[in-house]
Design a protein that fits this description.
- The complex is a heterodimer of chains A (217) and B (538).
- Chain A is α+β, with helices and mostly antiparallel strands and 217 residues long.
- Chain A has two domains: 1-81; 87-212.
- Chain A has helices spanning 2-5, 7-81, 87-101, 119-122, 142-155, 175-182, 204-212; strands spanning 105-110, 114-116, 126-139, 159-169, 190-203.
- In chain A, helix 3 runs antiparallel to helix 5.
- Chain A is rod-shaped.
- Chain B has three domains: 4-68 and 136-318, Nucleotidyltransferase, domain 5 (2-Layer Sandwich), CATH 3.30.420; 328-389; 406-536, Threonyl-tRNA Synthetase, Chain A, domain 2 (2-Layer Sandwich), CATH 3.30.980.
- In chain B, 42% of the residues lie in helices and 23% in strands.
- Chain B contains 13 helices and 17 strands.
- In chain B, the strands form four sheets. A five-stranded mixed β-sheet of chain B has the order 3-2-1-4-8.
- In chain B, strand 12, helix 6 and strand 13 form a beta-alpha-beta unit.
- The chains are: A alpha+beta (217), B alpha+beta (538).
- At the A-B interface, helix 1, helix 2, helix 4, strand 3 and helix 5 of A face helix 9, helix 10, helix 11 and strand 14 of B.
Chain lengths: 217, 538
């Protein structure tokens, strides 16, 4: 066969086959797989860039929101919402409100606080303290009564809201009642009872601390 | 007409009776290289030298112009399947020429150019012209030289057969648009060996060929013309046996010197259209260029140029010797062609992929820079968040919890204010009870110490009023009804129900009494207390 084809032809054929094989190998064993890897890397990097940018944007937006929320949070915190419901402070505050609103008498009872685990604040290691408050009020005027409720809801430490209100007129304004008032005797014209719920949010550690020293609630 | 740049460049070995004539055919020239007599010593080596050195090792076309060529026309094939036709033709050829190993078969075509099939015989497959060449010493020597030269073989063909379409083309060119080409065309040309080659075609196909020795001199055109005329007459005489009549129309094309051609034209008495050309003139008419020819009166360069530039031959001859050399070389040439094509494609692909890789790498590098910028920006934002000084989650949870408490609280004071406005100056409440409820109407469950209910808070208020006994019950009832209407108007989202009307007129009440008593007694028994229930918002 070599005599028919000649060495030159055979060599050229072998060279062509080798060249083709080399180029095919370079193409299919290196270039194409390598390109696939590089393209995958490129897609991954682009995806990472997109993710980082979205995350940055989210943080930027959050930062602005948090700046606004921070002021609100500070106001809530300053209102005593994050206090441990100090009974001494509460007593003094009710006395202040009684004097300010001119109700004749405010007989109050504050039950011991319940510690409530709330899912929403569990992740920040806080719990809720919830204390029922009952106030029996005697007043000359129903306006004083309402004022008392208003200031309890707005000047008391933490979050407080009325759940039950009963108000009753004891006496009519007549000559006898006016005379009694004029003589300086404390004549209540209005009597009522208000149930409040007093709620605050405190760190778990504060509660544990209080419980360890037997002064919880 | 061949396309110049696609015209194959070949070495044409013209096998004559006296010698082997070597030509080099390119797209614009047909160059006579040399002739090698058959008796010369080291014939093969000499020819190999010419093929390799003078002709550049180009593929070789062997053009047989020997006298010893055998034809058998009108060979009818039995009708067989397309798959068997080749074998059938081969067998028939072998039977027709058992002693001549170089053979070929050409389907005979009709006037319409289609092969003639089954004319008159139902089972007939078609008519063929069989041709064969003996394995003479010149052929053997030529084949050996080609084998030794290692060049490719483009084909082994017979000059008269391959010249038949040239003759037809010349006839058509001569006829032009003025008239139809003649049925019979007689091409006459003298070769270097002194032999006169006549190729006669009928309807464009080879009908007959003759090769006869004639007197060869340029100095006596008259004598040459007389001698050629004699041969021409003999040819006409032969043609009569093939059905030739002068009425069919005849073109006579002669390749000769101008004087000899003119002399011959005067001598020819047969009615015909006579044309005489030199080789370059005839080539020009055919749209070819043969270049400068030393002896333009010899017809070989025209035949060589025509056959040498063909991409497809009319009748490629086959033999074991030719196939043994030709097929492997042809296969290798085809393989090389495919490998070059494949290599081209792979190179193109490799280049494309390399460019793609460069671009992707560049893109990746750019994107990595962008990523580092994005990471830097992200880190900056994280730092800013860290500088807030608060636990973000604590802020959010605190606000969320506080707002939930706010949403769960009833706004009693605005409600009181509305009630007070609705009562006006004439009515007053004895008692007023407000409780937070939920949709079920049950009181708030906020004291149970469990998680707060998420439903919107509602309130339920009970208003109690009393009227002095001095008024008529109907007046009190009217007042209460009006009050209920005013409350509904002031608190459109609330349900207002009179649960206890003045003087208890409700149908579900049990009553007892004594008629005939004084008005004062009656008044003391009347009930002047009314109650309304307000619930909402809806």
């Amino acid at each position: 066969m070599l005599q028919v084809l000649g060495i030159k032809r055979v060599l050229i054929l072998v060279a062509l086959v080798s060249l083709n094989a080399a180029m095919a190998s370079a193409n299919y064993l290196y270039m194409i797989p390598q390109n696939t890897i590089l393209e995958r890397d490129l897609r991954a990097v682009k995806s990472e860039i997109s993710g980082k940018r979205m995350e940055s944007e989210r943080l930027r937006t959050e930062f602005m929101q948090i700046q606004e929320q921070k002021t609100y949070f500070e106001a809530i915190r300053d209102s005593g919402f994050m206090s441990v419901q100090n009974r001494l402070v509460a007593r003094r505050r009710i006395m202040d409100i009684q004097q300010y609103t001119n109700v004749l008498r405010a007989t109050y009872s504050i039950d011991s606080a319940q510690v409530i685990n709330n899912e929403d604040i569990k992740n920040v290691k806080h719990v809720l303290l919830r204390s029922p408050i009952t106030v029996e009020i005697d007043a000359l005027d129903d306006l004083d009564f309402y004022n008392f409720i208003y200031w309890m809801e707005n000047a008391f430490s933490g979050h407080i809201s009325a759940t039950n209100i009963k108000i009753r007129r004891l006496l009519d304004i007549n000559e006898a009642s006016l005379r009694a008032i004029g003589s300086g005797a404390p004549a209540a014209l209005i009597s009522g009872r208000v149930d409040f719920i007093w709620q605050t949010m405190v760190p778990e550690s504060d509660i544990q601390f209080s419980e360890e020293f037997g002064s919880g609630g | 007409m061949p396309i110049p740049f696609l015209t194959p460049v070949r070495t044409v070995l013209l096998i004559g009776d006296e010698a082997l004539y070597i030509y080099k055919v390119t797209h614009n020239a047909t160059k006579f290289v040399d002739s090698v007599p058959w008796q010369v010593d080291e014939f093969e080596e000499t020819v190999v030298d010419f093929i390799r050195k003078d002709c550049g090792g180009k593929p070789v076309l062997i053009l047989n112009d020997m006298t010893d060529q055998h034809f058998k026309g009108g060979q009818r094939m039995p009708k067989v399947g397309a798959m068997d036709q080749g074998n059938m033709v081969k067998r028939k050829l072998q039977v027709a020429f058992p002693n001549y190993p170089i053979r070929g078969a050409l389907p005979v075509k009709g006037k319409d150019g289609k092969s003639i099939k089954g004319k008159g015989i139902k089972q007939a497959g078609g008519l063929f012209l069989f041709a064969a060449v003996p394995l003479s010493e010149p052929v053997v020597k030529t084949m050996e030289a080609v084998r030794l030269s290692m060049v490719s073989i483009a084909g082994f063909v017979l000059l008269p057969v391959e010249a038949s379409d040239m003759v037809k083309a010349l006839s058509e060119k001569i006829a032009g648009r003025a008239r139809r080409a003649a049925k019979w065309v007689i091409f006459i040309g003298q070769h270097q060996s002194g032999a006169l080659r006549q190729v006669i075609t009928r309807d464009g196909q080879l009908a007959m060929t003759r090769m006869t020795p004639v007197f060869d001199t340029e100095s006596d055109p008259e004598s040459w013309a007389q001698e050629v005329n004699q041969e021409f007459k003999a040819t006409i005489s032969y043609l009569s046996r093939f059905g030739y009549t002068p009425e069919d129309g005849t073109d006579v094309v002669v390749v000769a010197g101008s004087e000899a051609g003119s002399a011959l034209e005067k001598l020819i008495s047969v009615p015909c259209d006579f044309k005489s050309f030199t080789v370059p003139e005839a080539a020009r008419l055919l749209g070819m260029s043969v270049g400068l020819q030393a002896e333009p009166r010899y017809a070989e360069p025209l035949h060589v140029a025509w056959a040498g530039r063909k991409s497809k031959f009319i009748l490629p001859m086959e033999s074991v010797d030719i196939t043994k050399v030709h097929k492997p070389r042809q296969a290798v040439a085809a393989a090389m062609f495919l490998l070059i094509l494949g290599g081209g494609f792979l190179a193109w692909q490799l280049l494309g992929k390399t460019q793609e890789m460069m671009m992707v790498k560049e893109g990746l590098a750019n994107q990595r820079v962008v990523l580092s910028q994005a990471e830097f920006e992200y880190e900056e934002e994280v730092k800013k968040m860290a500088l807030i000084g608060f636990d973000v989650n604590l802020i959010r949870s605190t606000i969320k919890t506080y707002e939930e408490f706010e949403g769960d609280s009833i706004q009693v004071l605005p409600f009181f204010k509305k009630i007070g406005e609705t009562l006006g100056n004439d009515l007053r409440l004895d008692s007023f009870a407000v409780a937070q409820i939920y949709d079920s109407g049950k009181p708030s469950q906020r004291h149970d110490g469990k998680v707060l209910e998420k439903r919107a808070a509602k309130l339920e208020a009970e208003l109690q009023l009393s009227f002095p006994s001095t008024i008529q019950p109907e007046s009190g009832m009217t007042e209460i009804t009006n009050l209920a209407s005013r409350l509904k108007e002031a608190l459109p989202d609330y349900d207002v129900v009179i649960t206890r009307q003045v003087a208890r007129p409700e149908y579900d009440q049990n009553i007892k009494g004594v008629a005939g008593r004084s008005a004062q007694e009656i008044a003391s028994e009347e009930d002047y207390i009314a109650k309304l229930l307000v619930r909402g918002p809806k």
